[in-house]
Specification:
Pfam families: MFS_1. By secondary structure, this protein is mostly helical. It has six helices and no strands.
Length: 148
């Protein structure tokens, strides 16, 4: 519930900056911070720490969820491509969500070794942030402006 409240704020507040700075320039820091927060769960061992993590991660993951469709749509050359690009994006996102939980459960093992299932999503989020950054630099080179 707390993470969902943070996500609600994260879906609104960062979007206010998109018009000024561009969707790539707002989503990339949010995803990098989300990756760092997932890694930080290794150090969380109190109720207050869990609460702070839930609010912050909810905020930054909500920002990702709300800015992903405009970011993917900005790659389309015309309006007819938007649906296809979003479909491909959400197909792979859905597949990751489908197989990620059982993989994390297998990594947890019966002895409850928590660092392994924490490492998997943190690396996935970090790799996605690096991919977004690479896409941004390629778009900057093609478009000729820093405000994407």
């Amino acid at each position: 519930m707390i993470m969902n409240a943070g996500s609600a704020a994260g879906r609104i507040v960062p979007n206010l900056f998109v018009y000024r700075f561009g969707v790539y320039n707002v989503i990339i820091p949010c995803v990098f911070i989300a990756a760092i927060l997932v890694i930080c769960t290794l150090a969380v061992n109190t109720a207050i720490g869990t609460l702070i993590f839930a609010v912050l991660y909810g905020f930054f993951s909500g920002a990702y969820a709300s800015m992903l469709p405009p970011m993917v749509s900005s790659l389309a050359k015309n309006d007819g491509e938007m649906g296809a690009r979003l479909g491909v994006c959400f197909t792979f996102t859905g597949l990751g969500g489908l197989v990620g939980t059982p993989i994390a459960g297998a990594l947890l093992s019966p002895s409850f070794v928590w660092w392994r299932p924490i490492l998997l999503p943190s690396l996935c989020v970090l790799i996605s942030a690096l991919c977004f950054t690479a896409t941004r630099f390629l778009r900057v080179r093609k478009k000729g402006t820093q405000w994407l």
